[in-house]
Amino acid sequence: MLAIQVRGDSVTDRMGKLDRLLALIHALAESIDGLTLDDMADRLGVNRRTAERMRDVIARHFDLDVRIDDRHKRFFIRDSLRRVYTRPNAAEVAALQAEADAWKERGQTARASPLESLLGKVKGALDDREKRRLDPDLDALLRLQRAFVPAGPSVQADPAALVAVQGAILAGTCLEFDYSTEGRSEPEWRRVIPYGLVHGSLTYLVGKMPDRDAPPVYYRLDRMENVRASNITGCAPEDFDLDAWLATSFGIWRDGEHDVVLHISGQSAERARHWRFHPSQNLHENGDDSLTVSFRAGGLRELAEHIFIWGGDIRIAAPDALRTVMRERLDAAARALDGRPFLSSSPQMPKS
User: Fold this and answer.
1) Which CATH number fits domain 159-242: 3.40.50.300, 2.40.10.10, 3.40.190.10, 2.30.30.520?
2) Which of 8, 53, 113, 323 has its CA 20 to 30 A from that of 345?
3) Per-residue pLDDT for 1 more than 50?
């Protein structure tokens, strides 16, 4: 009972200190002339040394300014408390800069442009004093921080196309554009209901033709020309879940849905426990240190190519269709080693 009472007193004491600290923060922000250390001590009912310690804590988290008045230092928080809490720090600005630079490095100017615009607005909202405080840390972080850009497609989509797609989504109208696909000499006109945007190594519009009883499909933004909002109303159903739709495929391409079961050797089991194969995956411990991962999804070619990175530590248990695709990918990969001539026409990914 005594221990409980002591603990309660300790909690009460800590809460009292926090209450006084918050009261001092508000007093420093609301004061017009500023507060001396004696003023702080009197307001809070503490001694001068305690007031000094509280001032030092506040100075680590707020821009605490000082003015000299009759040889007394008066302290105050220059900005409103709302601005103090919404002002970006160097790590946040550097993270935004790195993300914008990475999209630009990928050639994704449509994605980089709005991030660069946001970055400019964030920096523009800072006054000279804030910039001087931020610049040393920001320079260090920008010099030694990068977003990794893996090998992949490097194509540019028109930023105006992204703006047009977003505008149609907001307006609740269909989208019209001319679309180029491999194997066709001329672009073809399309009108689709915009169901969403997916950003990755490429940016895709998820769209559904309004006059067809067919599911939505992907359209690459870099292959869309003359993108404009239609005068025909069209928006995704209220119950459409973009995350759930994306989860019906392992990657981008869609070839129905399959019950996938993969056995992972004990050698790679620990790695697999911290690996995301699919949002709906289930992991099962097999008792011999191996794992089984199962999920339902399409995109078998991308899944087969992903299995390569496991170096033989994954065995395909199901479906048979995945084994067939894996054999095709192995045969294609063997051509890089055995000198066989290229096929006259390589198997292509499905087209939108």
Assistant:
1) 2.30.30.520
2) 323
3) no
Residues 6+ positions from 120 with CB-CB distance below 8 Å: none
Domain ranges of the chain: 15-84, 88-143, 159-242, 258-338
Average pLDDT over the chain, rounded to an integer: 89
Q: What secondary structure, in 3-state letters, does the chain show? A: CHHHHHHHHHHHHHHHHHHHHHHHHHHHHHCCCCECHHHHHHHHCCCHHHHHHHHHHHHHHCCEEEEEECCEEEEEECCCHHHHHHCCCHHHHHHHHHHHHHHHHCCCHHHHHHHHHHHHHHHHCCCHHHHHHHHHHHHHHHHCCCCCCCCCCCCCCCHHHHHHHHHHHHHCEEEEEEECCCCCCCCEEEEEEEEEEEECCCEEEEEECCCCCCCCEEEEHHHEEEEEEEEEECCCCCCCCHHHHHCCECCCCCCCCEEEEEEECHHHHHHHHCCCCCCCCEEEECCCCCEEEEEEEECHHHHHHHHHHHCCCEEEEECHHHHHHHHHHHHHHHHHHHCCCCCCCCCCCCCC
Interval 255-283 mean pLDDT:
96
Does residue 4 carry a pLDDT above 60?
no
Whether the pLDDT of residue 188 is over 90: the answer is yes
**Burial, 148: exposed, middle or buried (Cβ in 10 Å; 0-12, 13-18, 19+)?**
exposed
Q: What is the CATH number of domain 15-84?
A: 1.10.10.10
Residues 6 or more apart from 280 whose CB is under 8 A from it?
247, 295, 296, 297
**Looking at the whole model, is its pTM more than 0.85?**
no
- Distance separating alpha carbons of residues 292 and 272, to the nearest angstrom: 10
Class of CATH domain 258-338: alpha beta
Out of 83-97, 186-200, 213-227, least confident range: 83-97
Q: Is the dihedral of CA 278, 347, 106, 190 positive or negative?
A: negative
